[in-house]
Amino acid sequence: MIGLISATAAGAVARDRLAAAWPGRTRVYDGPVREAVGRAFAECDQLVCFLATGAVVRLVAPLLSDKASDPGVVCVDEAQRHAVSLVGGHGGGANALALAVSGVLGCAPVVTTATDATGIPGLDTLGWPVEGATAAVTRAILDGAPVTLEADAVWPLPPLPGNVAPAGTSAGTTTRVAPGASAAGGGAPGAEPAVSLAEAAAIASVPVGGLPGAMAATVAAGVVAEAAVAEAAEKRSPDAPAVVRVSDRVLDLGEREVVLRPPSLVVGVGASKGAPADEVSGLIEETLAEAGLSVRSVAALATVDAKAEEAGIVEAAARLGVPLRTYAAEELARIDVPNPSGAPLAAVGTPSVAEAAALVGGGELLVPKRKSAPEGRVAMATCAVVRKEPRGRLAVVGLGPGARDLLTPRARDEIRRASVLVGLDQYVDQIRDLLRPGTRVLESGLGAEEERARTAVAEARAGHAVALIGSGDAGVYAMASPALAEASDDIDVVGVPGVTAALAAAAILGAPLGHDHVSISLSDLHTPWEVIERRVRAAAEADIVVTFYNPRSRGRDWQLPKALSILAEHREPTTPVGVVRNASRPDGTSRLTTIAALDPATVDMMTVVVVGNTAAREIAGRMVTPRGYRWQTEGS
Ligand code: SAH
């Protein structure tokens, strides 16, 4: 719930606009602002205060306790010019909220957390639990100081700047963090470090008592104020090397160390009917602690289908905040385990529940089956712990037809989430500015599809987070199929749809795809012409609107006229045809013509050609394919 607090009439108007835009998500807190802020702070996940930042700083300061649990606070000024992420930028979601509020009210978001400003992912935004000296290590990363990465395995982490390197590799240790994307491919040596922003990180990390004043200075100036920089400089920590560890083991952390907890462990659980949740949870926690494993690396609990509703197990999973995976007894019975037993075989039909359920899909059995040991009664729970191999991540991302605002937010996020980017050089150019420092870019020229697909899959199989990019939609005459034809089930694959050329062109032409339509590529490079011709003929006979991709190139000029002549056997010469070149790009053009009048010379490889069906019309200079005769008459 988002609490809304205002003091003035103008504030109340803005507040009501936000409340109307987000029904069910917001709650208005009336009355004296001190009391309203207090109540909202206690009851809500986030606050939007239509008050001066100074006032909010004073009101909120005494209420702050911990950045992991404090609500995120956003301030909107009287004139609604700025939405300031004031407190809880990452953990409280205030940065995202400031952006969302700006979207509704039309103001400018103000985000001052250093990692967002420099394009480096905050350690606390990776989606994994992080423990230790987060602020100090973040600051070292931003400073461009050498930071050692000690990972137990290759995990699909987002890109880390060049100064964050595995122990023993000096590569990049002198590389400065370049704000923005110019460091793509390993960092731009010599680029100025984001000193002032690094100091801002230090400010954000000072204890609560020191927070409000310094933050207010940062916000008020819009950039880091001189005084704040000076204050941060005094707080410089000694030069112990900073370390980022990635491990599921319980570790003694040094003063300048953090550990990221990867989701590497699966705990198999068995329980007799009615086993108390405390017994199940207690067993899991004790088992992990004794094995020196972090409970925060538990990715899931696993058990047999018959126990899917067992309250103690369900509750134990809920307490850990992880899913409960269940498997059929027959599947578990097939898994080789060190400690099979007769009891579960009789009860649920498999000689092992805990060990077998944890071992589904493979992994290393770190802790064999253990029983709970409740005092004075028989044990009701068992558990076993398995460590899973990390799975790499392959995102297949469509960039859209060219215009930046037709690249979806999800595509943007996936591009910035990946530490390895694979794509055709001209597509990489399209989004180079979005890349985070440290992204490894593997680009190749036209025609190397198979190689790109293989490279992307191989990088993902090595455990990395990979984005394979393509224009339009990456699944339409593009990289998704060759890549997924290569990929095995040991990687995670995420598809991000993009606006394909047919849709981008249709939006320019009018409404040519209003009824059944098909896309046909006229490239006979990989498909024999007979197959293409058969499909064109089928579309012609079935009276389907056709979008031709790859319609014509210098060496391939007879295919388009031939395809049009096949369509003309079933459609009037006056049937509208839309020719769109470079849709959504600055030099984009479009023209509306007819089957008879189309001049093939106006068509090249940057073009799609949309041919209407027999019902398609040109209306007011636009191409319109009616939804259908019956619908048009009945619906009007
Ligand atoms: N995956 C892409 C298509 C790749 S095939 C997509 O979904 O759009 C390449 C063909 O797509 C080009 O020959 C051209 O016919 C078409 N195309 C791609 N982008 C285009 C654009 N911006 N404008 C017009 N046609 C485009």
TrEMBL record:
Domain (Tetrapyrrole methylase): residue spans on this chain = 394-598
**Transmembrane regions:** none
**The keyword Transferase is annotated on this UniProt entry:** yes
Recorded metabolic or biological pathway in which this protein acts: Cofactor biosynthesis; adenosylcobalamin biosynthesis
Which residue ranges does the record assign to the Cobalamin synthesis G N-terminal domain? Answer: 36-116
Q: Which InterPro entries match?
A: 4pyrrol_Mease, 4pyrrol_Methylase_sf, 4pyrrole_Mease_sub1, 4pyrrole_Mease_sub2, CbiG_N, Cbl_synth_CobJ/CibH_dom, CobE/GbiG_C, CobE/GbiG_C_sf
Q: Which UniProt keywords apply?
A: Cobalamin biosynthesis, Methyltransferase, S-adenosyl-L-methionine, Transferase
Q: Where is the CobE/GbiG C-terminal domain?
A: 265-385
Q: Name one Pfam family in it.
A: TP_methylase
Can you say what this protein is called? Precorrin methylase
